[in-house]
């Protein structure tokens, strides 16, 4: 059956009933900034808020996908319904990396309890920083209890997106310094759990001391969450249970202290503000183009109208 | 007579008839972003376009004011009506510098053919980058034939403003490197005439070679204007006639090649675009505040409405 002719309500209903194709279709539409996806998002919103998001970030090659895969296995053994979003803001260039990751995740390809999806920038309004929370809410609304959001790098956008999860895991390796130099401060700020993956290599102890030192410089109050540091070897599964326990410990902490609710509210306010700003930006771009714009510019040049009155005229009906 | 009760039309008429107090009043209102000034600007616009602007920029202490003062003397000997705008984007901190400059310009204080005025940021919409062209148009519309725009430093805003003049003069000193390091590329880009002031000091020849070398690296076509380099000693007046000739040579060049018209049109288009963008920005700031904003945020948090629909509602009537 083609899903192209389904209404937003039918698409959403199908996705809620476990139709993975319908879910994939909505996410594709969302990635493109399509109006149908927006409509589905509208319906999904009131059903969301139950899933828990875990952000996983770190330099390429740090072993994020192997760890994610190990986490999936663990969650599935607990019979949790999972979704994985792999976010790639620089997609045309790192398509290979994403593909590699997805191959590594093939283990879970036939498991209906796991839904894996990569998302790239498609240049529409607000880009990934606006489409990611929308995608998360959709996955949440169709019943995924854990949503793992993996970002491929440590650039500003990646760190921002991973930092908006309920619990954020930063994956480092022994001798991590160089690979994340550019955004060390950003990573330190968002991490709830540090993973030192490939901990069987030399330098793991130094890396732990490095992190501890940087944490000491951070002004944490005694009742704040103090980030945990977990050594792992993703390829053997060593430390994965400890990582899982660390994530759960953080979750319990923020749920008990009402931090989770406050954080989520803060993120929603920020998102709303960003949507308003991006919409007005789009409007400005629309206004400053086309025949009407050319005409008014010519009138300004011909001194028939001054620039401020011209702006008034362009903005007429925009209330600005 | 108090000018506070004059209508915009009366203020503009008084300024056109040579009432310096009325002109000063409009510029003060403009600096504050007052609606009366906007109204006067609207009337002034069709009377503008006849004056010629010369931007003068360079590091503090390079001798800009002394040179400006020498140029004023020269222009007055030709019976030109002049205005000088001293632009200071960082005003609260360099008020002293501006004051010093104005004291040096006291020579011209009693000459009705010279109107000197400093302008600082007052934090209103668009700041100096939008109020400076408006002020220039006003001075132009009341009959000033030459408008000298002096900026106090070589920061990005200063360089941008000076670069928007018809002819831009960059004032350097022997051993100039350090004082302008941060924005050397910006200065090279805007200069139509380089002045090496204090050319009696050692290092003047090296400075000339430096500039020539940097110009060689610039990809100038044979029919482009090739910036002139003029050595001066502002305190003795040495080289000021040559500077004046260089400015006139550049003016003739761009008038003959229709470059002046093209540049002015380009600047107007840019200004219009900036006004539209700033107005929408202001609108976004207005929208994302107040009781209505708080209410809609709460509705989003309570999941009564999704963020995109909430943005729709906030933007209702704004056409965005």
Can you describe this structure?
2 copies of one chain form a homodimer. Chain A is α/β, with parallel strands linked by helices and 320 residues long. Chain A is globular. The first copy, chain A, has helices at residues 8-16, 20-31, 35-45, 64-77, 91-104, 127-141, 156-163, 177-180, 184-190, 204-217, 240-256, 259-287, 290-301, 307-315; strands at residues 52-58, 82-88, 114-120, 146-151, 167-172, 193-196, 228-231. In chain A, strands 3-2-4-1-5-6-7 form a 7-stranded parallel sheet, with helices on both faces. Chain A is 55% helix and 13% strand. The first copy, chain A, has 3 domains: 1-46, no CATH class; 49-267, P-loop containing nucleotide triphosphate hydrolases (Rossmann fold); 274-315, no CATH class. In chain A, α4 (64-77) crosses α11 and α7 (156-163) packs parallel to α9 (184-190). In chain A, 42% of the residues are buried. The first copy, chain A, has 14 helices and 7 strands. In chain A, α5 (91-104) links the parallel β2 and β3 (114-120). The interface between A and B is large, with 45 and 45 residues.
């Amino acid at each position: 059956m083609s899903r192209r002719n389904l209404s937003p309500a039918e698409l959403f209903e199908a996705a809620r009933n476990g139709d993975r194709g319908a879910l994939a279709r909505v996410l594709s539409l969302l990635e493109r900034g399509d109006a149908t996806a927006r409509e589905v998002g509208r319906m999904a919103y009131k059903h969301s808020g139950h899933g828990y998001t875990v952000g996983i970030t770190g330099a390429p090659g740090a072993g994020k996908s192997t760890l994610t895969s190990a986490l999936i296995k663990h969650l599935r053994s607990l019979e949790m319904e999972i979704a994985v979003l792999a976010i790639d803001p620089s997609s045309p260039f790192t398509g290979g990396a994403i593909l590699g990751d997805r191959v590594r995740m093939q283990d879970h390809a036939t498991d209906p309890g796991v839904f894996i999806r990569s998302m790239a920038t498609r240049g529409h309004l607000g880009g990934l920083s606006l489409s990611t929370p929308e995608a998360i809410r959709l996955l949440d609304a169709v019943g995924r209890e854990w949503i793992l959001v993996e970002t491929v790098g440590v650039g500003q956008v990646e760190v921002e997106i991973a930092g908006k999860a309920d619990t954020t895991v930063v994956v480092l390796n022994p001798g991590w310094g160089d690979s994340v130099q550019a955004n060390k401060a950003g990573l330190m700020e968002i991490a709830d759990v540090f993973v030192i993956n490939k901990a069987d290599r030399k330098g793991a102890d130094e890396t732990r001391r490095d992190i501890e030192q940087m944490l000491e410089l951070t002004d944490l109050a005694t009742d704040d969450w103090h980030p945990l540091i977990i050594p792992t070897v993703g390829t053997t599964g060593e430390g994965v249970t400890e990582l899982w326990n660390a994530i759960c410990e953080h979750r319990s902490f923020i749920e008990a202290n009402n931090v989770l609710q406050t954080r989520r509210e803060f993120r929603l306010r920020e998102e709303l503000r960003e949507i308003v700003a991006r919409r007005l930006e789009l409007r400005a771009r629309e206004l400053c183009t086309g025949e009407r714009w050319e005409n008014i510019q010519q009138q300004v040049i011909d001194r028939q109208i001054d620039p401020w009155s011209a702006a008034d005229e362009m903005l007429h009906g925009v209330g600005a």
